[in-house]
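Quick start: what a row looks like.
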Amino acid sequence: MAGNSCTEKGSPPEKKLKVEDKDNLTEEKGKEYYDPDDWMTWPNKDVFIKYYQQLRESDGFEFDEYPGSCMFAPIYPMIGFERFPEFVDEIKSYASMAIKKYFGNDGKERDIKEIVRINAGGCRDFTYYITFKIDNDGNEETFQAKVEDTIENTIEIPICRHKV
């Protein structure tokens, strides 16, 4: 057989891609370093910095900007929850449990008037960060409750507090 087949010469074919890759790397040396696995090198890192700062300051209850769904943003806002009445009832029952824990057994009934905001996150256990309003003897008060729905099918409420 005549020709320039690589199999006839006994050597592997040339890899032009490798040469092109080397050229691309040298062209990009002057560009800002970007690592898709390191959010500190992302173009929107300021959003992440603000997000984490607000998460720390509010214990997960409040943040202005959500950087988007990714593993670096573990707590997300539940937008549009109002369209699901059964879910709202479930969240109200969690808020009611939290209020009973907060006030203890004082014999007063406090109605949950409104669910203001829900943030959520988790993979093993699912955690809700609920901001809600109650009627406390005719006065409207705003509370926040962190409610953990565990894999063991238990409900834990590590935080219930007045919103400041």
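That is the whole record. Helices lie at 6-9, 16-28, 45-58, 85-103. The mean pLDDT is 82.
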